[in-house]
Amino acid sequence: IPVLERLSAEISLPISIDTYKSEVARQAAEAGATMLNDIWGLKKDPRLADVSAEKGLPLILMHNQQGTSYQQFIPEVMASLKQSLKLALDWGVAWENLIIDPGIGFGKTLEHNLEILRCMEEFKTLGRPILLGTSRKSVIGRVLNLPPQERIEGTAATVAIGIAKGADIVRVHDVAQMVRICRMSDAII
Q1: Whole-number Cα distances in Å, 99 to 5, 52, 128, 159
Q2: Of 174, 141, 143, 129, which Cα lies nearest the Cα of 156?
Q3: How much is the pLDDT for 182?
Q4: 73-90 vs 110-118: helix axis angle to the nearest 10?
Q5: Which of 37, 66, 73, 67 is closest to 52 using CA atoms?
Q6: Would you name the residues annotated as active-site residues?
Q7: Separation between Cα atoms, residue 27 and residue 8, nearest integer Å
Q8: Which of 86, 95, 101, 89 is CA-nearest to residue 38?
Q9: What sign does the dihedral 111-65-165-155 (CA atoms) show?
């Protein structure tokens, strides 16, 4: 919290906090966080939505589950995200403050992660901005057989294709390079 307080006082960039615990979200919001990112889509602690609603902060709802077993993969991920959106709205989060994340790498196999990238446009039907977080993820490492620090080209491919398929926000490690990928992708799209 002291680091967050100091950062928020010294920089004007938005600060996103990654947590699924409402008390952590509350303290972070009071210390200057401007966005909340719940990797469990309110399924572990729905009171996190109350923090978003009370403070008027954007809330990223990510799909995640224990294990990788699905009957119908994309429909189940969509249904889970719809449930998260409903929970957020029931707790009073403003519709315009909701962002969805299909959860690359969380409760999914290699094939599932590739399927999300192939079907990104389906998530647009939920009517919310889509965040895509593929940067240096294991899906890239497994496809290219590379360690995390050598996955920049794989990340670039997923970012460009993600944008072409409807991603509105990307979370990345190699910011300077990915900004150029995003600008070029946006210009084409």
Answers
A1: 25, 12, 6, 17
A2: 174
A3: 98
A4: 70
A5: 37
A6: 137, 171
A7: 13
A8: 101
A9: negative
> pLDDT class for 123, splitting at 50, 70, 90?
very high
Q: How many residues can be counted in the chain? A: 189
**Model confidence, pTM:** 0.96
User: Which residue's entry shows tokens 């996103």?
Assistant: 16
Name the pLDDT band for 4 (thresholds 50, 70, 90): very high
pLDDT, the chain, mean = 97
Query: What is the phi-psi region of residue 128: left when phi exceeds 0, alpha when psi lies from -120 to 50, beta otherwise?
Result: beta
Measure the CA–CA gap between 59 and 31, rounded to whole angstroms: 17
pLDDT-derived band at 104, boundaries 50, 70, 90: very high
Structure confidence at residue 25 (pLDDT): 98
The residue-averaged pLDDT of 93-98 equals 98
Query: If you average pLDDT over residues 42-70, what whole number do you get?
Result: 98
Instruction: Reduce the secondary structure of the chain to three states and give it as a string.
Output: CHHHHHHHHHCCCCCEEECCCHHHHHHHHHCCCCEEEECCCCCCCCCHHHHHHHHCCCEEEECCCCCCCCCCHHHHHHHHHHHHHHHHHHCCCCHHHEEEECCCCCCCCHHHHHHHHHCHHHHHHHCCCEEECCCCCHHHHHHHCCCHHHCHHHHHHHHHHHHHCCCCEECCCCHHHHHHHHHHHHHHC
In this prediction, residues 65-69 reach a mean pLDDT of 96
